[in-house]
Design a protein that fits this description.
It contains eleven helices and seven strands. By secondary structure, the protein is an alpha+beta fold. Strands 1, 2, 3, 4, 5, 6 and 7 form a seven-stranded antiparallel beta sheet that branches.
Length: about 400
């Protein structure tokens, strides 16, 4: 008898695993269908509402139907960054409430399956959605929003003194880390080409060195300057510059500034930091700015590091909403599915209030930057775990 039971155990485990896979697929299918509907509905609502508010603006910029369609297609990743957590929360609450309404959760748990194991597919969806949201927020959305802005000005008549797209006039910035000041007449943010650049730095004897050129480009990590004039300034601060040499081409690998870092400087240093939109400041640009300015002013430091942690914390909202939805939707009882809709509205409003409060406190320096940015995720995730543990 003992041998027979021993032989049946592997078979029983195989049957259990197969049953769990079937259950996981069923739960995923029941979630993904309303999730697709929620995403589609929110996208349509967002686009039509935005189109209604910007229609006069589109007409003034002489955009046709093709231009408007391209604009919203390029804006799509940025829209998804905002609506994906909300759509996931609503779809999950609807799904769980529907399961609870038909006593499916009670039946599954009666078979010896814990609530956490039952919700494992939902947690997996939240984790994958968080990774996808991070990718959208950091890589796809910023480029898409920049391209969408280009579509808006596609048919505008260019001014006579406009150098063209992607060119920035009179760019100046200080690389305080390496002690170099750059003054550039024209800079192309896409190619990294400079026209009329001047680079100023201090020497060990206290004097200053000036390098002026007609043009500069970076190739394979080395800056090449063309039609170069070099000058030196006296240590006593005399404004008169002494010419040193004039050269056709000079290669300077010691200048470590990269086009990507300079592009970040254009976006952040040459504008009001706090006026930057969310999709305009990905992590790479914040880090590039901090490479040039390792010791920013206290007010700017609080804002920058709060923004940095906020960008890291934002994608994990998808996982947090799963943890919040489980206790709200999985509680036993025969309820209307619209309870899930009402619950999602309350949760979204509460999360938004806590998020804005945390970011404001972090940006103002009242609390550490990481705490201000991560506090909504930490608070709501902890609340979800505690309430889930109390679900009967």
């Amino acid at each position: 008898m003992t041998g027979l039971l021993t032989g049946l155990r592997p078979y029983s485990r195989a049957v259990t695993l197969a049953a769990m896979r079937l259950l996981d697929r069923y739960l995923l299918r029941e979630l993904l269908v309303p999730l697709v509907y929620c995403l589609g509905g929110f996208l349509l609502f967002w686009v039509f509402f935005d189109l209604f508010t910007q229609l006069n603006n589109f007409q003034s910029k002489k955009l046709n139907i093709s231009d408007i369609s391209e604009y919203y297609l390029l804006s799509l990743p940025g829209i998804l960054v905002i609506i994906l957590p909300i759509a996931l929360l609503l779809a999950l609450l609807y799904t769980l409430t529907n399961h609870a309404r038909h006593h499916e959760i009670t039946a599954i748990r009666s078979a010896g399956i814990s609530l956490w194991r039952l919700c494992l597919p939902y947690l997996a969806v939240g984790f994958v959605a968080s990774l996808g949201l991070f990718w959208l927020n950091e890589i796809v959305a910023p480029e898409g929003m920049a391209a969408a802005e280009d579509v808006l000005v596609r048919h505008e008549q260019k001014r006579a003194n406009n150098p063209g797209p992607n060119w920035v006039q009179n760019l100046a910035f200080n690389n305080s880390r390496d002690g170099r000041t750059w003054k550039i007449g024209l800079y192309n943010t896409e190619t990294g080409e400079m026209k009329d650049p001047i680079v100023i730095w201090n020497l060990s004897d206290g004097s200053t060195r000036w390098l002026a050129a007609d043009r500069a480009v970076q190739r394979r990590g080395t800056w090449y300057f063309y039609n170069v004039r070099e000058y030196t300034g006296s240590p006593d601060g005399n404004a008169t510059l002494i010419p040193l040499a004039q050269t056709n081409v000079v290669a300077i690998p010691a200048f470590t500034e990269t086009p990507g870092q300079i592009k970040s400087e254009v976006k952040l240093a040459n504008a009001n930091l706090r006026s930057a939109k969310r999709a305009d400041v990905p992590l790479t640009e914040i880090r590039n700015y901090l490479r040039f300015h390792p010791t920013p002013l206290p007010a700017d430091r609080a804002w920058l590091f709060t923004k940095l942690h906020g960008r890291l914390a934002a994608p994990w909202t998808c996982l947090v909403v799963v943890l919040m939805a489980i206790p709200f939707g999985a509680a036993s009882g025969r309820r209307n599915v619209f309870v899930g809709v009402a619950s999602s509205i309350v949760i979204c409003f509460a999360f938004f209030v806590v998020q804005q409060l945390g970011l404001a406190l972090g940006s103002g320096g009242w609390v550490p930057a990481w705490l201000g940015a991560w506090s909504p995720n930490l608070l709501f995730a902890a609340a979800g775990l505690i309430m889930t543990a109390r679900v009967r």
